[in-house]
Amino acid sequence: MGVRRMREFNVALLGKWCWRMLVDRNGLSYRVLVARYGEKDGFLKMGGGGLPLGGRRLSACVMEEGGVEGSWFRDNVTKTVGNGRGTFFWTDPWLGGVALAVRFRRLYELCVNKHSTVEKMFVLGWGEEGDAWQWRRRLGDWEEELVGECRTLLATIVL
Prior knowledge:
By secondary structure, the protein is mainly alpha-helical. Helices cover 47% and strands 3% of the residues. Helix 1 packs across helix 3.
């Protein structure tokens, strides 16, 4: 084949797969891997030893946990939110590099719309009077304070 640096070639191919899976979650490759290994909160499941080494690396880069060759993919590739259609509100690290599900874990556990996109949440309204916030139960005072923090963070966003 004329490829002298097989390791770099492999990393490049894994990076290409990771990119495809981030930008096209409805694509055939992502659907096949989800059918084979499962999905949790919009990402491929890690767990067990079910994934072969290449699959573990691929899944890790899609889940933003370690990435290909350490943190190479996460450190060198960024995704622009744009209109928010292809970005999950809670699970994608679209705001400050950390997923809202991580930053506001308690709110994520209580929310009804875990798989909403940024666009959908924006259209519903994430301000004081917005309908984006739907909870499994009534929030306590400290949880309401977390919602306030999240709203403050979101107030700077314009789609």
